[in-house]
What does this fold into?
Amino acid sequence: METTRSRLLPVISFREKLVISIVSLILFAGVITYAVYETTKATVTISIDGEDVTVQTHASTVAELMKEQEWEVQEYDSVEPELGSEISGNMTIAWDQAKKVYVTIQGHEEKVWTTADNVEQLIHELNIEYKEHDFIAPAVSEEITDRMNLIYESAFLVELASDGEQQELWTTSTTVADFLERESVTLGELDRVEPAMETRLDKESEIKVIRVEKVTDVVEEAVAFGTVTQKDNELRVGNEKVVQSGEEGKVNKHYEVILEDGEEVSRELVKSETVKDSKDRIVAVGTQPAPTVSRGASTSSSSGGSSQSNEHTLTVTATAYTAGCTGCSGVTATGINLNNNRNMKVIAVDPSVIPLGTRVHVEGYGEAVAGDTGGAIKGNKIDVHVPTKSDALRWGRKTVKVTIIK
It folds into this structure.
């Protein structure tokens, strides 16, 4: 039985044994080689935007490692150590991927790539000297994100005059209107601003807010009374009697007044309202002829004989006045309206010397009527009426002869 089992076992030749040995040796060598290859890899930790990734690599440089891992490094990315650095065991590489940010500085926009972690770091990268009153949005502590919009405006001083106060304020406003809105300065319907609301602001600008008010001012004014003369045949010529005293009237004048910062700048009369009517002064003027009085009557003679003249002459001191003189109403004691008759020849007299209504000839003045009186006209004094104040000044005070025409 044993002999039969031996015959059934396969017989392996020497050649086959050799082949098996060689294959086994190759496999063993491969395993050993692989094990050696794996154990000689460098361990590298890569921090990608703050997240750590650990890899085993036979790459000789950082650039080869990035290519091996199929990581594409962009132009503005930050890699530390740099791409050309050699790989060593237990190495740490920091890779910060750049983000695109739209930065607007003083109204001008530009695109920048940055690896800054927050707005404050980016501001420093851009060499912006950030001051307390400058405007930055978003806030400096905000984290940078891809395609973020960043706005920066530098502040400057503006001088504001408003409501009686003068103050200097920091602002980043671009126009007067924007500045007033940010400073919560409210304007009334009539208020004005200098310069205009749409004016663009610049350094050392001055803004003035002018408060405008429209108010109504009611002023009570006196209305002068007139003088009316009445003929009275019971009174001698040259005599007068006050029949009715004059009374001033009253009128309320309504003015629209414009005030700027409390100061009146314009006034316009919009309505007059009579409160009390004036009452005329009535004067009775005598018309009864006075006895004939001779005041140095002059005689004239001719080759044919002599006759009594119907004229007599006085030497008087003469001054001049106008209808618009201080305290004058423009209406004479005999009722002549000199306001309407600027060129009329009228003299003011002392009625006891020259009766009112007498026709006279004044030396240097011409023929006139004694139609007015005056508080200072006493005795041999007269006041001649002239059209203008300049005429009165030219007349001055002079001694003249007055011839009374009968």
